[in-house]
């Protein structure tokens, strides 16, 4: 199949040199890092697909915005520019800046969760679920079953299963539901979007029972693009209009500006309820900083305000998703097992099918991240049993149905030629897959173990 090329909607005016080390050097370095790519130095990585969070390239307008930073301790004009951007493009009334999305997750969890309350969601994300659990909440997955099937080609695998959600509400009582945690798109399912039609039905159900929807909107523009492209009846709408429609169906949002908003640090909590806003303003002073900066420099708030506007530009978002599908389609054509359909922020390798000889307790997805680094200097991240953590009651691992490796593509950073090299390295790894060994964990931190765990290869 001929590769589908699409020209970048930008030109490059600054470059950062990268260097590919020898295979023997890479083998030595990943072993010294405890077979965990998070522990590698950035200079030891050739193509870094560890995450798309905070790793994108800012525009000339954003860099110019940095020079307009007002670093006043209180009332920075950059806060009001950010507030105006959130109100214009997302429609939420109130904004509380945080140092990144995790700070917003912490605030909303402390505000809305009482011990023993349930937090349903369309699949978990590690930091989100951890904050919910630290506040005493119990996460319940209410995503459609297709999301757990890497072979399903359902176009909106981020959809909420309405029957699962209603069953939970009726069994526990609406008063015991802290809120519905709803992500656009769903990271752990492979960057899969939720449909607008499903969200409308979810909103109707939650209003009927008095349950809030808190929106994880880190990649809402990517989700809106997939609605525009694949959900009937929305092709005539702009991405910006669909983004605002999505947000209007929720009560508040946590945002990592390091994704859609195209900045390297920062986030916010957005709310419509003034009472919750006043509470959040008070809490943010305790944990982050004044409510008009919340752990961010004024210059970074300015860059985020500009990035929000850029994130919904049609050419930008179309090319951003095109790069992901460009890589995904090459791998599919080569017979590499990937999650279908290809999502929006990265390509997810199906590690269970890639390495069927490695049992799940030997961390096959983590082993595959090691092999990809050894082969091509590519840094990726595990999204399987390691990321799922342990069951607090039994002490055993959680055993997710999906055992994946995520290749997250930073925005406006790599060219299609870089992605060609990634594809070639993955194909070479696949040919040598039978020689890849499983791993055993030799160090396990208490929280979000995938960041700092260390391993040794099974002999």
TrEMBL record:
Note one Pfam family from the annotation.
Beta_elim_lyase
- Supply the alphabetized keyword list: Lyase, Pyridoxal phosphate
Higher taxonomy = Bacteria, Pseudomonadati, Bacteroidota, Chitinophagia, Chitinophagales
Q: So what family is this one in?
A: Belongs to the beta-eliminating lyase family.
Q: What is its EC number?
A: 4.1.99.2
Put simply, this protein is called Tyrosine phenol-lyase
Q: Name one GO molecular function term.
A: tyrosine phenol-lyase activity
Location of the Aromatic amino acid beta-eliminating lyase/threonine aldolase domain: 48-424
- UniProt catalytic activity: L-tyrosine + H2O = phenol + pyruvate + NH4(+)
Q: Where is the signal peptide?
A: none
NCBIfam families linked:
PRK13238.1, tyr_phenol_ly
Q: Which cofactor does it need?
A: pyridoxal 5'-phosphate
- Which Gene3D superfamilies does this chain map to? Aspartate Aminotransferase, domain 1 (3.90.1150.10), Type I PLP-dependent aspartate aminotransferase-like (Major domain) (3.40.640.10)
Q: Does the keyword Lyase apply?
A: yes
Q: Which SUPFAM superfamilies match?
A: PLP-dependent transferases
Family matches, as PANTHER family:
BETA-ELIMINATING LYASE-LIKE PROTEIN-RELATED, TRYPTOPHANASE
Give the matching InterPro entries. Answer: ArAA_b-elim_lyase/Thr_aldolase, Beta-eliminating_lyase, PyrdxlP-dep_Trfase, PyrdxlP-dep_Trfase_major, PyrdxlP-dep_Trfase_small, Tyr_phenol_ly
């Amino acid at each position: 199949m001929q590769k589908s090329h699409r020209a970048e909607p930008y030109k490059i005016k600054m470059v950062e040199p990268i260097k590919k080390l020898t295979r023997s050097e890479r083998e030595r370095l990943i072993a010294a890092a405890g077979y965990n790519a998070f522990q590698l130095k950035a200079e030891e990585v050739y193509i870094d697909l560890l995450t798309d969070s905070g790793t994108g390239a800012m525009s000339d307008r954003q860099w110019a915005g940095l020079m307009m930073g007002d670093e006043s301790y209180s009332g920075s004009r950059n806060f009001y520019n950010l507030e105006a951007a959130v109100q214009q493009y997302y429609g939420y009334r109130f904004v509380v800046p945080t140092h990144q999305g995790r700070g917003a997750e912490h605030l909303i969890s402390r505000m809305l969760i009482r011990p023993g309350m349930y937090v349903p969601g369309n699949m978990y994300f590690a930091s989100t679920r951890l904050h919910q659990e630290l506040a005493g909440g119990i996460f319940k997955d209410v995503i459609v079953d297709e999301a757990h099937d890497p072979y399903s080609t359902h176009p909106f695998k981020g959809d909420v299963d309405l029957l699962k959600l209603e069953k939970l509400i009726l069994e526990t009582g609406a008063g015991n539901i802290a809120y519905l945690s709803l992500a656009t798109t769903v990271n752990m399912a492979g960057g899969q979007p939720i449909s607008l039609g499903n969200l409308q039905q979810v909103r109707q159900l939650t209003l009927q029972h008095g349950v809030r929807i808190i929106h994880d909107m880190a990649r809402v523009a990517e989700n809106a693009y997939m609605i525009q492209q694949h959900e009937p009846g929305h092709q005539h709408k702009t991405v910006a209009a669909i983004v605002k429609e999505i947000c209007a169906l929720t009560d508040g949002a946590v945002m990592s500006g390091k994704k859609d908003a195209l900045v390297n640090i920062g986030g916010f909590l957005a709310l419509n309820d003034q009472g919750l806003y006043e509470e959040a303003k008070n809490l943010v002073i305790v944990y982050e900083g004044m409510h008009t900066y919340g752990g961010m420099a004024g210059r970074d708030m300015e860059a985020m305000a500009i990035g929000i506007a850029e994130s919904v530009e049609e050419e930008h978002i179309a090319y951003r998703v095109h790069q992901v599908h460009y890589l995904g389609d090459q791998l599919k054509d080569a017979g590499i097992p990937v999650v279908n359909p290809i999502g929006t922020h990265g390509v997810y390798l199906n590690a269970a099918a890639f390495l069927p000889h490695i049992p799940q307790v030997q961390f096959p997805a983590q082993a595959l991240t090691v092999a990809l680094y050894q082969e091509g200097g590519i840094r990726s991240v595990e999204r399987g049993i390691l990321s799922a953590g342990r069951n607090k009651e039994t002490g055993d691992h959680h055993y997710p149905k999906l055992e994946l490796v995520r290749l997250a593509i930073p925005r406006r950073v790599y060219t299609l030629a870089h992605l060609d090299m990634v594809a070639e390295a993955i194909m070479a790894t696949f040919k040598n897959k039978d020689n890849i060994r499983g791993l055993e964990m030799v160090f396990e931190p208490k929280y979000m173990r995938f960041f700092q765990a260390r391993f040794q290869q099974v002999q």
